[in-house]
């Protein structure tokens, strides 16, 4: 990198990436120069550079950054990616980064680490930060309490606007958000909320009781995904979180709710595609972790596909008597699988958004029966005409009837299975596309051969 040449951010990042990813690594004599250059690009570009690098190389980038900038970049990474960096960074950097994280982000990182490392990191915190982090750790995984910020200014209902603003000035640097303020009684019961805008525009002598509005809040034990999904459409910056006695314990911020929904959607998308979510950027994910995310699903699907083999073996004589039937197997199994997948994807998404609840299973089943029948009628009519022209009336009847029944069955099963999964506490996405495809294949073949035997007298 020639000295004295001013480069654009893009060129800086491209050349830094080439140097960092080279076999030689970063020459010691150029570390100071690269450190200065890394302070030039926008923070999001540096985060992207770290996300595209292995743990070892990402650690090099973080060490080259200034302290403030390194903490910002580390904080912006996914918890799984942060965990991968722990060994590469060395103790001093890890302790510093860990101490600067918000309590909820610390807990997310601790969840990704082995117990002995998590305990070691907790011991590096001062008593106050350890206690605050312990509050979040005390709630079960998947709950709102696990994602809330417990650092909330205590603004009491008997204060005036001037008194509240004075208190905010003293504690603003410690709180994660001050734009939406919960108002509490002296025994910490949540009684209302007020916005910072309302405080700034009100008379200083006005009591908070006159300004506060009825609070929208969540219980710390509520499911994080369900809460985040109903909270986000309200367009609020933050929401109070209370315990079972309705005492204030924290705040759920808008950005944390967005993260929760994004993680849930990524998980659903991954599982509907028959693999586990990586939980960190693709290029920085170790190869072994990628293999682990896929291999279990492939083994499960391979075993479940034996059902299809067993069905074909059972109807071997039927196939031998009318070899032409084998030509339509890919069409019928593919149509059944696709129909089931469409229904499952639609209902899984509706469950996530709260449009469908487990008690709606009968309504969903009845709707999907009708949708499947209409789809099957259209596809079956086309299949009947084409098969009759080429292979004769009997084959046409078999194909048309099979498509009608397969579409009806697959749509119904695809719509109902995610709800059953939700009902028993499983992830609806797990019961989605891969399993429904296998079930539709096996069942579709049974329907196909039974109709063929009946119509053709085999």
Give me a quick take on this structure:
Keywords: CBS domain, Cell membrane, Magnesium, Membrane, Metal-binding, Transmembrane, Transmembrane helix, Transport. With 458 residues, the protein is mainly alpha-helical.
Could you characterize what this model shows?
The protein has three domains: 9-138, MgtE N-terminal fold; 155-262, CBS-domain (Roll); 305-456, Tetracycline Repressor, domain 2. The protein is 64% helix and 6% strand. The chain contains 22 helices and six strands. It has helices at residues 9-21, 31-38, 43-51, 55-64, 67-76, 79-89, 91-100, 103-111, 115-123, 127-137, 161-171, 196-201, 208-211, 224-231, 254-272, 287-304, 306-314, 316-321, 329-353, 361-391, 393-423, 433-456; strands spanning 155-156, 180-184, 190-195, 218-219, 238-242, 248-253. Helix 4 (55-64) packs antiparallel against helix 5 (67-76), helix 4 crosses helix 6 and helix 19 packs across helix 22 (433-456). It is globular and about 90 Å long. It comes from Corynebacterium humireducens NBRC 106098 = DSM 45392.
Distance between the termini: 78 Å
Number of strands: 6
What share of the residues does DSSP label as strand, in percent? Answer: 5-15%
> What is the H-and-E element order?
HHHHHHHHHHEHEEHHEHEEHHHHHHHH
User: Helix fraction?
Assistant: 55-70%
Query: How many helix segments?
Result: 22
Function: Acts as a magnesium transporter.
Subunit structure: Homodimer.
Protein name: Magnesium transporter MgtE
Keywords: CBS domain, Cell membrane, Magnesium, Membrane, Metal-binding, Transmembrane, Transmembrane helix, Transport
